[in-house]
Amino acid sequence: MWRRVARLSSLIRSSKASLSNQIQPANGLQILEAFSTEIQKSAKGRNHHRKKPPFITFVLGGPGSGKGTQCLKIVETFGFTHLSAGDLLRKEISSNSENGAMILETIREGNIVPSELTVKLIQREVESSENDKFLIDGFPRTEENRQTYERVVGAEPNIVLFFDCPEEEMVKRVLSRNQGRIDDNIDTVKKRLEVFNALNRPVINYYSGKGKLYKIPAVGTEDEIFTRVRKIFTSLEVLSMLSPQFSIPIGVILFTLTNLLRR
Ligand SMILES: Nc1ncnc2c1ncn2[C@@H]1O[C@H](COP(=O)(O)OP(=O)(O)O)[C@@H](O)[C@H]1O
Ligand SMILES: O=c1ccn([C@@H]2O[C@H](COP(=O)(O)OP(=O)(O)O)[C@@H](O)[C@H]2O)c(=O)[nH]1
Ligand SMILES: [Mg+2]
Questions:
Q1: pLDDT score at 48
Q2: 113 CB less than 6 Å from ligand 2?
Q3: CA-based Rg of the chain, rounded to a whole angstrom?
Q4: Ramachandran quadrant class, 50 (left: phi over 0; alpha: psi -120 to 50; beta: rest)
Q5: Which own/partner pairs from 174-182 qualify as long-range (CB within 8 Å, at least 24 positions apart)?
Q6: Of 85, 113, 107, 117, nearest to 191 (Cα)?
């Protein structure tokens, strides 16, 4: 255990060294990010692939709340693989699969595709990927979606992000999205908002009750919103990587991080 703590201290020293050529004094978040980078460097060369279950983040929010936009930024900064349930379903339509016509009709009407089908598409992507951390964007949309995922996959997500955006703003964004989607019209958007409020909010409440929900105010520029998101992932990355890698008790990790941030 003390050897592990010594290794942790050495990583802290490297993190501080990597910040030492800054002109401005480093703030707590910068220290934490440099620390996280050092841990990732030290982990390179080890084979993490599927020795443990992947780290799963569900990304929820109404239509146009900015889920996809923020997921791309999380991918760039934190190396997650982005799986948009909507994109996977749209791919099924364009590949002329046997379910294509049914999916197209369901999306056109703003309804929800049968859970088994969506879960199968997500599971196939996770299992064929080399990555061990995923953003599952726009799923689960209903309690039935959630229960099917947890039954089939046999696990809950590690965390859930909820982009909280007023309806007016969501409608404005969807109607100016310009991606040629059949469901980005005023009638379908109204239906999708009804479905979101009736069926998706219970899922959000469920994960909130389990202490897994991170609610992010989703009004502002994309960068302003990402600043909120980045703080969450930076802290989580440090904690989730430290605990299994070093087998150090969580109390020691928190004590060390608290001291680090005070300096
Ligand atoms: N913070 C923001 N402010 C204004 N427009 C945004 C913001 N974030 C995303 N958008 C735009 O709003 C539309 C919907 O965003 P998107 O990420 O596709 O949302 P979702 O996946 O939740 O439906 C897109 O055209 C996107 O460029
Ligand atoms: O798990 C899912 C995800 C999406 N959809 C369907 O796909 C549409 C578009 O979803 P997407 O996540 O792409 O929309 P967004 O919220 O990003 O606008 C939804 O309205 C649903 O009809 C679904 O049935 N199940
Ligand atoms: Mg989207």
A1: 44
A2: yes
A3: 20
A4: left
A5: 174/63, 174/64, 177/64, 182/104, 182/107, 182/108
A6: 107
**Does the Cβ of 139 fall within 6 Å of ligand 2?**
yes
184 lines ligand 2 (CB under 6 A): no
Cα of 224 to ligand 3 centre, how many Å?
Answer: 19
Which residue's CA is the closest to the ligand 2 atom numbered 1? Answer: 139
What pLDDT, on a 0 to 100 scale, did the predictor assign at position 235? Answer: 87
- Residue identifier of the C-alpha nearest atom 7 of ligand 2: 86
How far apart, in Å, are the Cα atoms of 126 and each of 100, 130, 212, 241?
21, 8, 21, 20
Please give the residue that has the higher pLDDT: either 27 or 247.
Answer: 27
- DSSP assignment of 110-177: T----HHHHHHHHHHHHHH-S-SEEEEET---SHHHHHHHHHHH----SEEEEEE--HHHHHHHHHT-
pTM beyond 0.80, yes or no: yes
Of residues 18 and 102, more confidence is placed in: 102
Question: Which pLDDT score is estimated for 46?
Answer: 44
Query: How many helices (H) and strands (E) in the chain?
Result: 12, 5
Mutate to test the pocket of ligand 2, among 84, 113, 164 (most ligand atoms within 8 A of CB): 113
Ligand 2 centre to CA of 81 (Å) is 18
Q: What's the order of all strands across the beta sheet hosting 133-137? A: 81-84, 133-137, 55-61, 159-164, 213-217
- As a whole number, mean pLDDT of residues 201-209 equals 98
Ligand 3 mean position, distance from CA 60 (Å): 10
Ligand 1 atom with least separation from CA of 62 = 22
Amino acid letter at 168? E
Q: Point out the ligand 2 atom lying closest to the alpha carbon of residue 85.
A: 3
